[in-house]
Prior knowledge:
Blueprint: E1 2-8, H1 14-26, E2 30-36, E3 48-52, E4 55-56, E5 59-60, H2 63-71, H3 74-79, H4 84-91
Parallel strand pairs: 1-2, 1-3
Antiparallel strand pairs: 4-5
Amino acid sequence: xxxxxxxxxxxxxxxxxxxxxVADGMAGLFEVxxxxxxxxxxxxxxxxxxxxxPTHAFGLSRPSTRRNAVGGSAxxxxxxxxxxxxxxxxxxxxxRGGGVRHQDR
Length: 105
């Protein structure tokens, strides 16, 4: 059976969730290994490599954007009411649509 590596970077668990869903979808065709990129997974011997990462500030995350994502300003944290891209756009006042609302769990 062919081997696949699905590696991801995830700060809040969302990208990890997507990576695991991709791996589940591939499982019937590949022997799949799922790994956080921080573990420096070995890609040698893999037939397929899938990489998942969050986007920060219109690109891949960097140390400065990771700090901003975790810290943020108190004002921005208070205003945050939507999820994902809709939340980002709403927080930056570029989007006036309804967005996706968080549901209390």
